[in-house]
Amino acid sequence: MATSFTVQRSTSGDITILALNGFLDAHTAPEFEKVIQEEFDAGRVRLIAECGELTYISSAGLGVFMSFIEDIRAAGGDLKICNLTPKVAQVFEILGFNSIFDMVPTVADAETCFAGPAREV
Amino acid sequence: MKGSGRWIVAGILSLLAATWLVWAFPRLHPAARLGLRYDRDGYLDAARKMAASHGVDVSNWRAYVKTENLSNNQELHLRMPSDKVAQSFPDADVLTNFLPLTGPGVKITTRPDGHPLSWKMPMPAAKGAPSDMGAASKAMHEMAGEDSGGYTMMEHDVPEAEGLAYKWVRKAAAGPHVDIQTTVKDGIVWQAKTVFTLPEKFNRTSDTFSVLRVIAGCAWSIWLALAIIVPVMREGGGAAARAMKDRSPIVLSAAAALAVTLAGMIEWDDEMISVSVASGASIEVLSLVLGGLIIGLLFYSMSAATVMNARVHPARVRGFRLLGTSAFYSRQVGAELLGGWLFAPVLVALPLLTGAVFRQPVYKGFLETLPLSRLPVPDALLNATAQETVAVIAFLGALLPFSIRFSRSLWMRRTLCFFFALATFAMLSAPFRDSNIANLLRAALEASAMLWLYFNFGMLGALSAHCSARILTSAGVLLVQPATGIHASGWGTLLAFAGLGLAALAAVVKGPDAVAELYGETGARLQTLSRREELLAEFNVARSAQRQMLPADPPVLAGYTISASCDPAREVGGDLYDFLHLSDGRWGIGVADVSGKGVPAALYMTLTKGLLCAAAQDSGDPRQILAAVNKHLRTVTKKKMFVTMALGVLDPEARRMEYVRAGHNPVVWRRRAANETRLLTGNGIGLGIAGPALFAKTLATETLELAPGDALVFYSDGLTEAMTVNQEQFGEERLAAAVERTDGMHALDTRDSILREVKQFLNGVPAQDDLTIAVLRVDPDIGS
Fold it and tell me: Which of B23, B500, B580, B598 has its CA 20 to 30 A from that of B615?
């Protein structure tokens, strides 16, 4: 089964929007990881993952979200998640990610969230 | 009983039994009454001389000698000690057959002391002198010996073509009588026999007690039906194919067929000779045909056994399955064989001990007839298996798993197991004539011994004990005969018995470990392999090591059935299930899934298993257990690693479960009475993700009041996310529907049924993720 995954970067002020597309699994997770690492290294720590086209996420994909969140928050930023398809949203919820991440319907909602209080891990 | 306990029990019992047997075997075993005064050569010499005296030269003919224990006569001796006629009945007889290359042979029977009892040679063709009283009289005097005076002459008719017949009769007032009949043709006594007629009450065609025979008959029929119908019904045509993959049935049946064929070639028996003469086929060909038939029967029963048993008690058939692999010489196989071998004296002693306690003579040992073989030691070894062995395999392989699988409650399971065990062993032999209680007790003792062996040394251990006991008995039978010529064979057989034990011991001490063989594809030897192959072999070791961390058998809880399995998608996996016996008597059932795949996931899986066990020792509260695991995982794991887990703590008595879910797929709760299926989606974050405070704050506990017939299905995402080529997932809805269709089933069948539906859904696509499932079913028929 061939899996494909792409990340498109765009910016809105100091916020980076990462539009995820396709399958985020053990094979494609390193690509996503690389993108976040680059943003982090560039000091851009206000990130939004736009998941409207994300069709599948495996535990390895979820691991990428987890692995950066502490460092990002320590640096004063956050990673917001928005526009999840119901199936992917269910995976996030089962894992309890809704207690850790802000998961909102749209990019605009996510941008608004950055104004709110910081969350703990 | 694990570890050294089973060896101590087997060792002590064996030592006691062996010591007692030295005294008891020559006194109590029926073979001691055979009283053989000569060895094979001695009886053959006497028979050749007798043939020569009748003018037949048998020196180049093939010969067969066997002895037969005449237990009816032995009983008569005991019952009528002062009756002279009764006392003249032989305890045993020795049958010698001579067979020319073509045509009928010569058959001679004698008493164990060599005194002639019957004689039969081919009927002379020519029509000879009308009468030869002299020759007949001589032959009859020879057979009657000192008792000649006690006989009276009688009329006796035979068809004219056979010659003229003479008959003497000797009768006691109380009933037993002896006839001597001769038939003379052409001046030759071609047929002479001594016929011993027992009083009606002693003439038992079978010494098996009738009620036991009915039970045994039922058990036998049930077994046949089960062994043939059940695997076919349940597995379709796949039973044989699956068993072929195991290879043990085919290897063992081939070995048994070879043994039968070899035994047939070494020693043709009476029936083989008569069939051979009637059909014109050679005995060697008949041996092969018989071997072929046995291979079929054994193969079928062992296929059924492997397939049925491997699903119920995988750990109990481990050694048996290894026999069909290149790891047949390994510690695991050696240990099971040695355990059984060590126990053999106990099995030999059991009937004799029962007889001693009930003061009953033992009329039936393992061997009713004893061939005086050309090659006695190989013959004794080849006769280690018999039709009884098939019955033992049928019991352990089919009836036992059947009892476990198809009975709903623990009580019923135990009752069924023991009933089948009792019926099987009652069927095999009923050695006592006057005490049904003693027969039943013997069967119960043997059944218990076999069950103990099965649960401690596996199916192979039980079979090893059964076969070793037969070899040991053969040695004993040879050693208790008065003829010193036979003793050498007895010692030889005993030596061979010891050799088998030493071979098993060598495998235990020096043999390789077969763990890789159990679950991997190769039993590769590391030093001769390339780096890649070496890694593959190591993977196999890792895979089996990981497999062994999962519980071998689910716990047995009264009122519940439990079943679980884990199939990693790769060599090693990150899934885990476990059953935890908590200090307050409750049971934890957990399924966990480590994020990612392959070796990293596998390493964290073992870590999680360890953390879970440790945490479960400190607390019986599922919240506290998970909090502890979370705390440690968060400290030691990499940031992107996490573990999800569903954990239920069951109070079996109260039928209550406390349930927590740390980011894991929600457990399916099927409530049969309410016809309701729920996904238990309580809050909780995966382990290793959040700090202790947030984790504890989020984790919700749910208390489930279970009702009879309810099922809880724990699983990993590999099951719900199983994907077809069209990237369609199995999903929770299909899972819930699949669970609903298992209402009323045993946990094992529930599990099988769900996995089958997933497989059908995938339609040939291999699973991408580990498939783990654990099912707890409340027995439907217990009171609510």
Answer: B598
> A78-82 and B188-197 as β-strands: parallel, antiparallel, unpaired?
unpaired
Does residue B86 share a domain with residue B13? no
pLDDT of B12 above 70: yes
Query: Is-contact B266 B378, C-beta < 8 A?
Result: yes
pLDDT band for position A19 (cuts 50, 70, 90): very high
Inside any domain, residue B784: no
Q: Residue B521 has what pLDDT?
A: 39
For chain B, list residues whose CB is within 8 angstroms of any CB belonging to chain A: 593-597, 638-642, 644, 662-666, 681, 683-686, 689-691, 693-694, 698, 717, 723, 725, 727, 729, 768-769
- Burial of residue B11 (CB within 10 Å: 0-12, 13-18, 19+) is middle
Same domain, B573 and B506: no
Residue B783 lies in a domain: no
Comparing CA positions, the residue from B511, B514, B552, B508 lying closest to residue B337 is: B508
Contact B451, B316 (CB under 8 A): no
Task: Count structural domains, chain B.
Answer: 4
Mark whether B17 and B164 lie in a shared domain: no
Residue of chain B minimizing CA distance to A26: B596
- Domain residue spans of chain A: 5-113
Biggest CA–CA distance in chain B, Å, is 117
- pLDDT confidence of B684, banded at 50, 70, 90? very high
Name every residue whose Cβ is closer than 8 Å to that of residue B453 and which is 6 or more positions away in sequence: B339, B340, B343, B461, B462, B465
The answer to whether the CB of B566 falls within 8 A of the CB of B755 is no
Are residues B142 and B287 part of one domain? no
A1 and B725 within 8 Å at the Cβ level: the answer is: yes
Mean pLDDT check: name the lowest of B343-347, B370-374, B611-615, B741-745. Answer: B370-374
What class does CATH assign to A5-113?
Answer: alpha beta
* B516 pLDDT more than 60: no
How far, in whole angstroms, is CA A62 from its chain's centroid?
Answer: 9
Q: Percentage of chain B surpassing pLDDT 70?
A: 81
| Beta carbons of B192 and B182 less than 8 angstroms apart | yes
What is the 3 state secondary structure string of B360-378? CCCCCCCCCEEECCCCHHH
**B102-116, B144-158, B671-685: which range is least confident on average?**
B144-158
B742: left (phi over 0), alpha (psi -120 to 50) or beta: alpha
